[in-house]
Amino acid sequence: MNTTLELNINNGIANIKEPLNLVSGKTLDSYQLKYETYGSLNKKRDNAVLICHALSGNHHVAGIYKGETKPGWWDNMIGPNKPIDTNNLFVVCLNNLGGCHGSTGPVSTNPSTNKPYGAEFPIVTVNDWVASQKQLMEYLNIPYWQFVVGGSLGGMQSFQWSLQYPSLIKNSIIIAAATKLTAQNIAFNEVARQAIMKDPNWHNGNYLEKGVNPDQGLALARMLGHITYLSDDSMKEKFGRDLQESKLKFNFDVEFQIESYLRYQGEKFVTGFDANTYLLMTKCLDYFDPIKDLGETLNNRLKDSKCRFLVLSFTSDWRFPPNRSREIVKILLNNNKNVSYAKIKSNGGHDAFLMENKDYFDTMRCFIKGSRHDKS
Amino acid sequence: MIRVRGDLALISSWIKPNSKVLDLGCGDGDLLKLLKKEKNIQGYGVDSDIIKIKFSLDNNINVLQLDLDNDLSQFDTNSFDYVVLAQSLQEIKRPKNLIKEMLRIGDEIIVSFPNMGHWTSRIQLLFKGMMPITKNLPFKWDETPNIHLCTIKDFIEFCNKNNFKIIEQLITDENQKCGILTKIFPNFFGQVANYRIK
Q1: CA distance B191 to B194
Q2: pLDDT band (50, 70, 90) for residue B5
Q3: Chain A residues interacting with chain B (CB cutoff of 8 angstroms)
Q4: How many beta-carbon pairs under 8 angstroms link A with B?
Q5: pLDDT tens digits for B161-194?
Q6: What pLDDT is stored for residue A1 in this prediction?
Q7: Quick one: fold of A185-282?
Q8: What is the C-alpha to C-alpha distance for residues A118 and A275, in angstroms, rounded to an integer?
Q9: CATH class for the region spanning A10-181+289-374
Q10: Do the Cβ atoms of A344 and B64 come within 8 Å?
């Protein structure tokens, strides 16, 4: 067995020619999905893992590119001897449709106009993402996923997989997620969208044609989002009321360290992210409500599913707090599904799902190891 | 609390095959593992301790990290055939509420607890004048998680007072056996008391 500590990254672009009929009623005739893989698919082809990214994620989930220093966004979780162990699992992560990191999205060229899609790019839903991920699965010659794993919006995709293609998923890991957004969640998203759409460079979403970017608005949206991803305690611990300089200046410059941190996060974000994609991702979150969408057919979808579920929440997460995760657990319990749930102690807020934490990582390892009892 | 095999076998003998079982305070998931193998049950464990959650997951047992005193609203009324509370009663803040919740969730409930009336406990209190420390209750008074210890007599009175209908009682000695002494003097020779309640 290969037990090297080096992680080999393979990446590629899947050109999907099969039209995708979107929930909105529109159709994408063809599209491309940018993806990365780690580890290798075994002979039985039963060790494939799909990682679903959250709001601002992309396909580069683990490993470090040659000549760079920054690892993928979930590198602590995925790799040789890590909880999602690439020594025996074949891990796939893609940039979701509508993204801005290589998959077809608002920054791609619209074949019918030869201009960037911009605001013309159709709104996609979690349902559409899962349908496109199934196309990628077939493209990679994978018969089914042993695990589908995600945090936040990624966790919603993992849950949706179990409902949309119950026979193609053996284990679903749903971290820091919910079955739907609350009014408060949608409210935060709306403020983020307004920040972007009120930017003078917005141009109704067709800013790329004008050669500008609504950077101010996007940075504001990110700053707001960032506050909701942290907890009061973690901010207190990290910044407190520490000042940039030794005393108050009695003006509106950056004075407290938290102000400087947020501005930095906003400015850094706009260099690598597209505003239309940000709007799309927030809509995707707002629309997600599979329990309502499926209605009475939900129980049928779950009836024949042999999927095992692990639902995880974090004590300090106030964006998707533990009781929201327990709503997922309740649905699965009511349908007699194999479900486990843990509430991990952490002061990291919603972003805790991206942070290293012994209980969290041990729980992941134990669940993943436990799944092998079923294979015989 | 360490659960011994005899305790599990006894509870297992009360459970019908292919039923749905909720095990409160499931520890490492060993009871559910046994029931899954021998009775083909659909089981879920509940424990508040993350360490126990990890062990249960390792045993491929469905397990939910919930607080027994506060979180049982997670389960629908009449959603289980059996709800088991094996040797954890003494750690519960509000035993009466918990038994009521168990009866709401399950068709039948199984409760077991270490008997504080066992002669070894009585002798320690009588002659040493100190809180008893026994094989089943190995903690010093200031370190014990056990806040609601009771004797068999206490428990029967508690059930009668609250209209919890005992349908079967099995008292075992230190060898996990029901002998003549545990039958005649259960509250003196019984180490663990097991009850089926409706």
Answers
A1: 10
A2: low
A3: 310, 326, 329-330, 333-334, 336, 338-345, 359, 362-363, 366-367, 369-371, 373-374
A4: 57
A5: 999 999 999 999 888 888 888 889 999 899 999 9
A6: 43
A7: Rna Polymerase Sigma Factor; Chain: A (1.10.1740)
A8: 9
A9: alpha beta
A10: no
